[in-house]
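Hello,

Following up on my earlier ticket. Below are the four sequence lines again, exactly as submitted.
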Amino acid sequence: MARPKSLTHDAIAAAALAVCDRDGLAALSMRAVAAELGVATMSLYRYVADRGELERRIVDRVLGAVDLSVPAVAPWHERVARLADRIRDAVGAHPETVPLLMTHRHASRGLMRCAEAMLEALDEGGFAGARRVVALRAIVSYVNGALQAQHVAPLAGAGTDALAALSTGEFPLLAETARHARAVTAEAEFRGGLEALLRGLATAPGR
Amino acid sequence: MARPKSLTHDAIAAAALAVCDRDGLAALSMRAVAAELGVATMSLYRYVADRGELERRIVDRVLGAVDLSVPAVAPWHERVARLADRIRDAVGAHPETVPLLMTHRHASRGLMRCAEAMLEALDEGGFAGARRVVALRAIVSYVNGALQAQHVAPLAGAGTDALAALSTGEFPLLAETARHARAVTAEAEFRGGLEALLRGLATAPGR
DNA sequence: CTGTTAAGCGTACATCATACGCTTACTATC
DNA sequence: GATAGTAAGCGTATGATGTACGCTTAACAG
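Thanks for your patience. The regenerated structure is below:
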């Protein structure tokens, strides 16, 4: 016995993501999202409590789009790597949202989906108890850090050039290392670190 | 032949950091920092180009305070772990700045100091060329991700409790894993993941 | 047709970063 | 010591932001 809603949470998240993709994260505002939907600014507040919730819904949409259908038959570390690649793909499709992912990932059902899939692989790999906790957190930490590094300071970016340029100086090793950075693709970087982590997780120390 | 400056970049960064520490990152504003220093808001713009530069100086101050004096005689992986612990200490002293670290770390001389120190250890460990690039980036990614995870979603926090509470449901492994999280201290988590990564980096795959 | 209810939204406000240009304090020169 | 030149300091103004508050309106139940 009331006026029906004209928007959905899904449409709002899609509109917000569209604004980010098109105009950048800095352009994300309640006004911009409302305009994108063709409604007044304050109408959004019938659907989200505040800007924070809007951001959380963006994150959830990006992470919810991760394709988790990896073959369950592969060895566990390969499954985890495959899942991480899928996350990388999903985030790569919306690079502007990376800072939001960093801030809001914890309150996201989308991340929980990914975590559960990771845990299935880890479980199969024999991880249990505290060891599984550490493994999951390490993987999530690495993936998050790597995604952010790739977006905010890509190896093939201006920062690397700047480092390589200060050939002599107070950071000799850093400069020399930067000069080798061009030989490393973003994918090799991501995979290399991840696989190292997984190899290390496989070889427990005190057992 | 002009009026001398009454502030220094250092004093500004210190004041900004003080605001963050005392009132939280959300309270960080040009006005708040100016008030902290006892000057007018616009006076700050004689020293920093914009708010972004202010934030970068905060990051630089936090990272510049990292104690890099670790014994050079220890095995390389232990040196790296020690350095990472020092970074963790420095960031832990200013937890409110974590989101800034994530956004601005790349343009920070403070991070370059840390990176150079890490590279010294890696060099000693025989890392060179592209392999050294991958190793450094992986370590930096992990440390960043782990620090952020620790502050935005600590294992000993409400998020873990919430996960553990949804005992039955769509995320059974996640819930069960959360229930084991209390047995893992923040330090064990950080160390566990880092040492796994370093172990994995030590064992190169295709060689 | 009409009344009830929640959706939609116009207005207002506090706060933010910051552009612009005036005022002021210091110092170098005489 | 007086004075002029210069950059520091800052007052004011502008446009953007998130969002509180309460009015308007559309849709459905009766």
